[in-house]
Amino acid sequence: MTATTLAPPPPASASRSGRAPIGRLTWLLSRPTAQTKAVLALPAIAFAVTTALLLIVLGGVMMFWRWTIADADLYQMLSVIALVLLIVPLIALGGAAARLSARRRDDRLATLRLIGATPGVVTRMTVLESTAVATLGALAGVVLYLIAMPIVGLLPFQGEPIGAGALWVGPGAILLVILAVAALAAVSAAIGLRQVTISPLGVRTRQSAPRLHWSRVVVSVVAILAAYVMLGSLGSSGDWMLTIIVLGTGLGIGVGILNLIGPWAIGMAARLALRRAKTASRLIAARSILESPKATWRQVSGVAMTSFIAVVAGTGVSFMDQFQGDYDAPTRMLMADIRTGILVTVLISFLMVACSVGVNQAAGILDRRDLYVSLDRLGMPRSVIEQSRSRAILGPLRFTTFGSALVGGVLVFPLTSLALIFAPVSLVVIVGCLVAGVLMVWGTIKATAPVMTRVLSEPERM
Amino acid sequence: MNFFTPPQPTNAMPPANSAQRPPILTGSSLVKTYGSSTALAGVDIAIAAGESVAIMGASGSGKTTLLHTLAGITPSDSGHVGFYSASGLVDVTAMNESERSRLRREAFGFVFQQGLLIPELTALENTALPLMLAGYPRREAEGRAQHWLVALGLGGMETRRIGELSGGQAQRVAIARAQVTGATVVFADEPTGALDSATSEDVMSALLGSTVGQGHALVVVTHDETVAARCSRVVRLRDGRVLSHTAVGTTFGSNAVTA
Ligand SMILES: Nc1ncnc2c1ncn2[C@@H]1O[C@H](COP(=O)(O)OP(=O)(O)OP(=O)(O)O)[C@@H](O)[C@H]1O
Ligand SMILES: [Mg+2]
């Protein structure tokens, strides 16, 4: 089964009868030069991390589904929610890898046209290559998963470490995940290719950034008010089951709102930043966000979801914590476990976001190497280039993280005020987690600086 | 003005006329090799203030390499580059990377074949960028940039982004960007290479007017004889050596100055 993913039969056999041996051409042209190495390694790493995290999360979910204790159904429901939430950053990661694939095709088109290949051949080659790279990455991810199992196994649920074995998903699931990752790569490469049929820069520069309609804001405000009233009516009833249901609904509404107003809010903030920009790096950063607030949102939305959920759910836990005395031991255990679950979900989500930001940044540098080389030649200091790059992500990230946390806070305000009084520890943990997440992304951007160094030190012949 | 003297194969030396005006940039015995290929095999050249020099030669003859070496973009393997700044002679060859970067930012201007402007920024912002890097407040930087854009016939296009400009307009924005800080030498590598001949004429006029017209020097690499004919001097390269220095038009009297 794995063998088939490495060499998809239909295109390969079709071309064998025709002119271009796609598999061999792909292999020939994939052989690493300094630059292609980075272009191939980046998505491979991204896919490896994705696979490892997916397997760990899946292992956790499956573990809960094997449970037979009294509250098992609650654990199962919550684990599925966590899984669903992690899909947002997962898709962002896939999209990032797809952009790199698209870039590969542009490079190739030039080379291959010279030897007379049709765009179709090039497309198939690129899809094949993306799939192969993703499969290799996924295999590395399985190794990563095996290494991480004992460490993640230390996490306590139901009062004791779950143990490495509990996270084992079995060979069938591993195979399925590898296939799914490969398929994701193939599909997103194909989609990515369609989007760059016109030159990527040409598409990007044509007109000014679209303004989002104000109706989104109205809808959002109404929804927030509705959710607020609903959560407010929850009052201080100590019924945790009801609390979870209401919080779950509020959470769903909140996620919807965030997606509705996220890009719009990022655009507004960037417009403000543009007007106030005093330095070159701030100006460039604000302009590049405005270029496509949606694309920026896509990169940081995983964080937005997570911080929102962390606040809503975490506050819920703090809220319930205050009735600790009224609860029996199993319920208290459940509270602690929910908190652990939230933290784990937040961390995994940040890890995915950091990874996709890293891939996006590296891809962005390679995409625009001509521009960066020319700016360097003009004498633009390296620090300005780097600052504008990190500002264009960290600005929206900070804004989004704390903005979504704020929306979450507003939604659960009746609970938050109590929680702050009775269980500040829980909130401190959540805020700490969010700050750590921002730092993680910051570190990722820093980690892509060597790519820039290489681009600038080995400028393409012009 | 518009006539062209065919190249005369000679062992080239810096032209005698460099004594007429003070040199602003000199390169002596410049050698640059890439692996086994020799891009520059001992080039001597002097650029005088306010003159326009066209560098010509076959593909691979070392034009871009010479331009980059003179501009402090690429360090040469041996030889010297000297720049006569307001405060005296500076040895570009002895500068480190960040000093050269600063020199390029403050004393030189650049125009490349494909504008290479920042696509997200407007024409005005692109032009104002070098001034902002030099520490001008944004308002003042944009005010000066505005003047240059108007002078180059781009009035009314300030808020357009680069993708919304034609190739010739984008190239004029690049010229404005190169001169907005008052650079004493502007380097242009095939600035008209991607333009049709009429647009090429316009861009070349803009380039000459905003450099030589201001008393600044222009070094332009080109394959286009009509472009070269509008410069005061043509330097021809072959295999990393100067083949000939040819004075064009009336600026330096005789047609071919060789020694
Ligand atoms: N970065 C580099 N790495 C390796 N070789 C290089 C590099 N840059 C230039 N060369 C070599 O140096 C020689 C001169 O190159 P250069 O770019 O200066 O030529 P050119 O005259 O500008 O050509 P063109 O008209 O095609 O732009 C060529 O043989 C080229 O192959
Ligand atoms: Mg060249």
UniProtKB/TrEMBL annotation, chain A:
Q: Where is the ABC3 transporter permease C-terminal domain?
A: 81-195
Give me the segments passing through the membrane.
Answer: 38-65, 77-98, 133-155, 167-193, 214-234, 240-266, 300-320, 340-359, 397-415, 421-445
Q: Where in the cell is it found?
A: Cell membrane
This protein's UniProt keywords: Cell membrane, Membrane, Transmembrane, Transmembrane helix
Q: How does it sit in the membrane?
A: Multi-pass membrane protein
One Pfam family, short name: FtsX
Tell me which GO cellular component terms the UniProt record holds: plasma membrane
Predominant location category: membrane
Q: What is this protein called?
A: FtsX-like permease family protein
What organism, scientifically named, is this protein from? Mycetocola manganoxydans
Which lineage? Bacteria, Bacillati, Actinomycetota, Actinomycetes, Micrococcales
